[in-house]
Design a protein that fits this description.
The structure is a single chain. This protein is α/β, with parallel strands linked by helices and about 100 residues long. The chain is about 45% helix and about 15% strand. The protein is built from five helices and three strands. The protein has a three-stranded parallel β-sheet, covered by helices on one side.
Length: about 100
């Protein structure tokens, strides 16, 4: 059996960075720049959700998926829970995403 990583320290560190005002929106600014206005965006491996929240603040319908409950807990604590889904990249199927209200493509 392969031991699973413990993400508690990472999640706590990331929560602290967001709450202390550190600029966590670099990737969101890039995605915003190359996207059409009001795009539907799926952040695969969204972590604590900073990019999703930043893209939403710029008018996009952004959603995030991440397989790590400890990290995703921070996302739903800091931002709107309906924007996030516990799901890994290998589990992605367009029909499943659409059923969850997420972008299917």
């Amino acid at each position: 059996m392969i031991p699973q990583p413990d993400y508690r320290n990472y999640a706590a560190k990331m929560r602290h960075l967001v709450l202390s005002g550190i600029d966590m929106e670099v990737e969101a600014r890039f995605v915003d720049m190359i996207s059409v206005r009001g795009a539907r965006i799926l952040d695969v491996g969204c972590g604590i959700g900073t990019a999703v929240a930043a893209l939403r603040s710029r008018g996009h319908a952004a959603y995030g998926i991440d397989p790590t409950p400890t990290v995703l807990d921070v996302a739903v604590e800091l931002y709107e829970p309906s924007w996030f889904l516990a799901l890994g990249a290998v589990e992605i199927a367009p029909s499943q995403l659409v059923r969850q209200g997420l972008p299917g493509s």
